[in-house]
Automatic annotation (TrEMBL), chain A:
Keyword DNA-binding among record annotations: no
Subcellular location, record wording: Cell membrane
Chief location: membrane
GO molecular function, one term: transmembrane transporter activity
Protein name as it appears in the record: Branched-chain amino acid ABC transporter permease
Membrane topology: Multi-pass membrane protein
Organism: Oceanobacillus arenosus
Gene Ontology CC: one annotated term: plasma membrane
TrEMBL record, chain B:
CDD domains from the UniProt entry: TM_PBP1_LivM_like (cd06581)
Keyword list, A-Z: Cell membrane, Membrane, Transmembrane, Transmembrane helix
TM annotation in the entry: 12-45, 51-73, 85-109, 115-133, 159-178, 209-234, 246-268, 288-311
UniProt source species: Oceanobacillus arenosus
GO annotations of cellular component type: plasma membrane
Keyword Transmembrane helix in record: yes
Protein name, UniProt field: Branched-chain amino acid ABC transporter permease
Record's bilayer topology term: Multi-pass membrane protein
Any Pfam family: BPD_transp_2
């Protein structure tokens, strides 16, 4: 029982991190039909700049803020320089974002050095406590809370505010939104920046969770995010939360019982979904 | 075969191939010969990628898995059995069959999907192969890899050169024939407009799967040559970097041209060698992938047709049409061309 609940908490924490990465991907895809292969690059840049300022200033909160700012900035630059010139051409988009991913990943090594960097959680999130028989590690709980918080804030924005209305309408029909006099380009840019910031936040939160950061983890982690986006359905926000938790928990259990197959089980999940419901579980 | 009907470009390519036979007599340095061999191997790999990307319009980020299958099949065969020519040929056969089966399964599962899904799924599948190769240490040796012996005849650098050159030339002409056949034309039609091709009555999934199998088998053969050229194999043959390398070669050279990927492979291979040797001059050259990535992005934005494609468009924009007209006037002014001929001339 203790084991199972520990694994579930692990899975939830991993799931939330994947969700933060996948949420941006799925929104960007739903709205702009751009599949951003560079998303993993934004993830590592968030992690590195966040960790750098965290270790420099000693404050974890500052680290998170810096990571989010990096995400916003990189999102802006990516959208303007990389996505915009090839707008509407799917093949070029896929090719160019993958190339940009590579540049981002290598550039990390230039700026921060090629070695792994060890990261410890901040003092107030270290350690664990008991609930009944179950050990709960504080940092994992923290990730779960942040993930849920981000989900509800985003849901609130999407469902209750004007900009959210525009985004949701844009997912359904871009041309109509444009003809109603709304600058859809600006909305694209904002959504891209927010998606990038979520990826960067995910990277920053992931750093103390895994204990080390390295440049290649962006691509590794974004593969999980792609799986989640496919399972949840492209463009579905709640779908990506559900799928991320599913993938996270599956990953946690497999990593404990059959470590060699932990990636394989997610691949299998994705393959099954793609065969029986290629539009994803939550897509209309 | 009527020699007069062979296209002029075929003679040019044959001439270049003959010239390349002489090269190892002039270039005797082992390291230089090794680079040229690598160039041939990657040219084969890039051509196979071009069948997918350039001719069918499929973006696969997992093409490296076939390459890796070929490389590992050879290495394991050579390591476990006698290093004779017989086991080498057996290794090629195993690599081909394995790659064909895997590409068939992958193709049937995934090629119904839209380009985005396909790209993601292949990236994830290749990741799976990489993890699998790292975990199955007893067979693959993991990241450390293992070395193996080659049959006597292949140990000689000159023989290896000839084998790779011959493979390159044969595969080039084979694939060129394929792309100019009616089958190749259907692939191009799929690239241009999937829905229209489907409504013309072609089962596009079948065509895509066949293209995937062809590309997979050729890539696995490139993997075979790669591992025997190094006499060593490790998990880097499944790494995403390799996919990106081949993507870069195809795109720099020019997609959908076959000769473009060969040129691209040459450029990337020599640039790689040159930039690595500059690493002593300045540390930035150690991170040459950044330069690659930037060049690649610029090419995708500004020259999406690549070197060969851009040259073709600029200097011979209507050459094909004019040629066709001329031939029509000369050969068969009344009836026009028969079906096959029209395909061949594009």
């Amino acid at each position: 029982m203790e084991l199972i609940s520990t694994l579930v908490i692990n899975g939830l924490a991993t799931g939330m991190l994947i969700f933060l990465l996948a949420a941006g991907l799925t929104l960007i895809f739903g709205l702009m039909s751009v599949l951003n292969f560079a998303h993993g690059g934004l993830f590592i840049w968030g992690a590195y700049t966040g960790v750098w300022s965290y270790q420099l200033s000693g404050s974890f909160i500052i680290g998170i803020i810096v990571a989010i700012l990096t995400g916003l900035l990189f999102g802006l630059v990516t959208e303007k320089l990389i996505i915009r010139p090839v707008y509407g051409n799917h093949i070029q988009q896929i090719l160019i974002t993958l190339g940009f991913m590579l540049v981002l990943q290598e550039f990390i090594k230039v700026v921060f050095g090629p070695n792994q960097i060890a990261v410890a959680p901040p003092a107030f999130l270290q350690g664990s406590f008991y609930v009944g028989d179950v050990i709960i590690i504080k940092y994992r709980l923290f990730i779960i809370i942040i993930g849920i918080l981000v989900y509800f804030v985003s849901m609130f924005i999407l469902k209750r505010t004007r900009i959210g209305l525009i985004v949701r309408a844009g997912v359904m029909n871009k041309e109509m939104i444009q003809s109603l006099g709304i600058n859809i380009r600006l909305v694209f840019m904002l959504v891209f920046m927010v998606g990038a910031a979520m990826a960067a936040l995910s990277g920053m939160l992931h750093a103390p969770y895994s204990g080390v950061i390295y440049a290649e983890m962006g691509l590794e982690f974004s593969i999980l995010a792609f799986i989640v986006v496919v399972i949840g359905g492209m463009g579905s926000f709640s779908g990506s939360l559900f799928a991320a938790i599913l993938v996270g928990i599956a990953q946690a259990f497999m990593a404990y019982y059959v470590p060699a197959l932990s990636l394989a089980v997610n691949m299998l999940l994705m393959t099954v979904v793609l065969i029986f419901r290629p539009q994803g579980l939550f897509s209309r | 075969m009527n020699l007069a009907r062979v296209e002029k470009s075929t003679w040019i390519y044959l001439g270049i191939s003959l010239l390349l036979i002489v090269v190892p007599i002039i270039v005797t340095g082992r390291s230089m010969q090794f680079i040229i061999i690598q160039f041939f191997i990657f040219a084969i790999f890039a051509m196979s990628y071009d069948i997918l990307l350039g001719y069918t319009g499929i973006i696969s980020f997992g093409h490296v898995m076939f390459f890796g299958i070929g490389a590992y099949a050879t290495a394991i065969m050579m390591n476990r059995f006698d290093s004779t020519i017989l086991s080498f040929i057996l290794a090629i056969m195993i690599a081909t069959v394995l790659a064909a089966i895997v590409s068939l399964i992958v193709g049937m599962l995934t090629l119904r999907l839209k380009s985005h899904f396909y790209a993601m799924l292949t990236l994830a599948l290749a990741g799976l192969f990489l993890v699998g190769a790292e975990k199955w240490r007893s067979l693959t040796g993991g990241n450390d890899g293992f070395t193996f012996k080659l049959p006597e005849i292949l140990r000689d650098s000159h023989n290896l050169y000839m084998l790779c050159l011959l493979s390159l030339v044969l595969i080039f002409f084979g694939l060129r024939r394929l792309t100019k056949s009616p089958f190749g034309r259907v692939l191009m039609a799929i690239r241009e407009n999937e829905n229209r091709t489907e409504s013309l009555g072609y089962k596009i999934v079948h065509y895509k799967v066949i293209a995937n199998v062809v590309a997979g088998v050729v890539a696995s053969y490139a993997g075979v040559l790669y591992s025997i050229s190094l006499r060593f194999v490790n998990t880097s043959v499944f790494a995403t970097d390799m996919t990106i390398d081949v993507l870069l070669m195809t795109i720099i050279g020019g997609v959908g041209t076959l000769i473009g990927p060969i040129i691209g492979a040459g450029l990337v291979e020599f640039a790689h060698h040159w930039l690595s040797s500059l690493a002593d001059v300045h540390w930035i050259f150690e991170r040459w992938i950044i330069l690659y990535g930037i060049v690649y992005i610029l090419i995708v934005i500004f020259f999406p047709l690549g070197i060969v494609g851009t040259i073709q468009k600029k200097f011979f924009p209507r050459q094909n049409i004019q040629k066709k007209k001329k031939r029509m006037d000369r050969e068969n002014p009344e009836e026009g061309m028969d079906e096959d001929e029209r395909y061949r001339n594009g």
